[in-house]
Specification:
single chain, five-stranded mixed sheet, 6 helices, 8 strands
Amino acid sequence: MRAAWSRLGLRGRLGLAIATIVLASIAFVVLAIRREVGEGVGAVLIGGAIGLVVAFIAGRLLDEAFSRQRQFVSDASHELRTPLTAIRGQLEVLARSERPDAAEVRHVEGVAMVELTRIERLVDDMLALARLDEGEPLRTMELRLPEYLRRFGEDPALGGVALGELPAGILRGDPERLTQVIRNLLTNARRHAGPEGRVELSAVADRGQLIVRVDDDGPGVPAAERERVFDRFHRSAAARDRGSGGSGLGLPIARSIVERHGGRIWIEDSALGGARVAFELGGFEPGDAQLGTA
């Protein structure tokens, strides 16, 4: 149910709510006409009650959609205010100096560039979520495993990713979006494992389902936080998107994309001692062999 609701997008949800209100209104009109021509009072009351319930549900759907949008704008404004305040503070310090030397200018430039990069990443993530909420269509293709997954272990930008078991076969999905999911999970794992920690990517196949797993040896995620870390801009000392340069949107984006593919994503304990973030997708066609790499 949650995945189907997510795939509707904001426009789809609003459309469903409006259509429900229209149908409820039509039901009221029909019931009023029947009452005038002598239909039984009991039938009118029952039909009217049904119409009221439907109208109430539609109203809740509309309220939820608008509430989510208002909350998103509020959270985004707060997140943008922090780096903008830091940049402004540095510029004000520089402005108070009558003759700033080169070292001061370089320091301010360095701080400003870090914060501007943070703003750019945040804006990119917000745009990605907006497109997902609008129901951007998936560009489904056949992805050949383990070749597709192996390239993440070869990407130096991810800080070194060990590869575990990688089943051979074909997965149908949007390569750009699924790459975004895996990169988000690997970047998040590296952030919490640290530069010297271990991050591992693996996958298992079972009866047409593919489970992709990202493990790390970092501090892990407490059981009470494992669902909430997928909330947008979630704030917590244990939240794995926060406090270390993350935008707070990496895991929510991953969940949205996985659910758009009809799958699910979750967090559990890792054999490495930290956390495992795993997601499951259907429609996997296994090959004849499996590849294991260290």
